[in-house]
């Protein structure tokens, strides 16, 4: 069977402010020391009555730990609609889809590498998907349905991507959506599977 319509929406939100490593990918070496130093700076700023500087230092600590973690997907959830922002979605639950009802997913990674060059931070996500039946037969799919580079000046760990799969031509039955997400800079990837069902009309 061929998937005749697949609607995909990819988006990320990156909000906040912190420092990176000039001209190079964030490295895992020294992450603990870097995070401890940032937390110490935050404590000093709070004591000195400088809350904005304290928040900036805590964001630096968060990014140091987050970017050094192994690349993974920490949240992959079916949603009742397209997510409005970072963790701003209504979980759909496991009820079967009605015929033609779109299948929305919220995808949140951890451990993305980043570059910092000339005051600009860069991250990127790439993703493929394959739709299978319950016997493992491939019904369709798309490589690089999401290939999204991001250039920004205020990075954070509030990074997410959404996917919407059209189901108009899918017969009633049970399926498995296999998603592979890649760190565009580091080249690492992770694959996850999400079950879905389409109810008979």
TrEMBL record:
Presence of the UniProt keyword Signal in the record: yes
UniProt keyword list: Signal
Protein origin, superkingdom: Bacteria
Signal peptide positions (record): 1-26
Annotated protein name in UniProt: Bacterial spore germination immunoglobulin-like domain-containing protein
Native source species: Rhodospira trueperi
Organism classification: Bacteria, Pseudomonadati, Pseudomonadota, Alphaproteobacteria, Rhodospirillales
């Amino acid at each position: 069977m061929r998937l005749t319509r697949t609607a995909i929406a990819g988006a990320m939100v990156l909000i906040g402010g912190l420092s990176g490593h000039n001209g190079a990918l964030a490295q895992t070496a020294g992450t603990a020391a870097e995070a401890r130093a940032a937390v110490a700076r935050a404590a000093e700023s709070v004591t000195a009555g400088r809350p904005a500087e304290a928040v900036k230092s805590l964001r630096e600590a968060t990014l140091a730990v987050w970017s050094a973690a192994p690349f993974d997907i920490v949240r992959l959830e079916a949603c009742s609609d397209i997510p409005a922002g970072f963790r701003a979605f209504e979980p759909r639950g496991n009820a079967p889809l009605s015929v033609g009802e779109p299948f929305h997913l919220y995808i949140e990674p951890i451990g993305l590498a980043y570059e910092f060059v000339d005051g600009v931070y860069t991250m990127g996500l790439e993703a493929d998907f394959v739709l299978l039946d319950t016997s493992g037969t491939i019904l369709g799919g798309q490589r690089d349905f999401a290939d999204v580079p991001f250039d920004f000046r205020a990075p954070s760990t509030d990074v997410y991507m959404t996917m919407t799969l059209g189901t108009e031509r899918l017969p009633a039955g049970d399926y498995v959506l296999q998603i592979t997400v890649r760190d565009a800079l580091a080249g690492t990837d992770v694959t996850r599977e999400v079950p879905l069902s389409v109810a008979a009309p």
